[in-house]
Amino acid sequence: xxxxxxxxxxxxxxxxxxxxxxxxxxxxPDYPTITxxxxxxxxSPFVKKEISRYxxxxxxxxxxxxxxxxxxxxxxxxxxxxxxxxxLPENAVDTIRPTRFIxxxxxxxxxxxxxxxxxYILTPEKLEAFERDHGRVPEGAWLFMRTDWRKIADPKNYxxxxxxxxxxxxxxxxxxxxxxxxxxxxxxxxxxxxxxGQAFRFEPQYPCHHFMHGAGKYGLQCMTNLDQLPxxxxxxxxxxxxxxxxxxxPVRAIALV
Length: 257
What we know:
Elements: H1 2-15, E1 20-22, E2 47-55, E3 58-67, E4 75-77, E5 102-109, H2 111-116, E6 121-122, H3 124-134, E7 142-146, H4 149-152, E8 161-162, E9 165-166, E10 170-171, H5 173-181, E11 186-189, H6 207-214, E12 218-221, E13 234-237, E14 248-250, E15 254-256
Parallel strand pairs: 5-7, 6-10, 7-11, 11-12
Antiparallel strand pairs: 1-15, 2-3, 4-12, 4-14, 5-13, 8-9, 13-15
């Protein structure tokens, strides 16, 4: 019975048999925001302004206004974010079916590689090795690239920017096509973008955005606590704000383990 299934889930959450893992960074003014070359428009960092706090401006209530880019903090990328996905149906955060925001997750451990090379590139060979160890990536699953980036990145230079641009991990074009062939729901990372820092040099440029969004898939960026997830078996809930024709949104991403 459906009611029994939901009651069992609630009981498991209450007993701790199913844990809730927060995959979300705290939105705050000092949280790093992706930076584009100066000739392009820039994402706004998170800005919070107090309206009142139990004072003359509002004696019984505390609240704030805030400003942020759709792509600030732990956030969701919709297909409309990229030119390749601009004409797809259900391509914006307000038109994507809510069932798409709940999906199983496969977590590919790239921590050793990223620690040795902060610009590590994920390839199909690594993904095929994952499947040999953990079974085939199921259709409709998130595929997460675990790098423990928060532990190895310089807090003052989160994107690892150098004179020739960012140096952060991400997939090559072949890996993105491999994931699309598995019909994943999307790709998620702990870095500021789903593409590698040097992906502007790839062909095509930014292959994860180019191919993933062109295929109607999604992205999750700036996640944390992926080290608390098993390689398979977790269920992720990542629901963006319902912004009209929104290209993305900050999310409170959580996993059931």
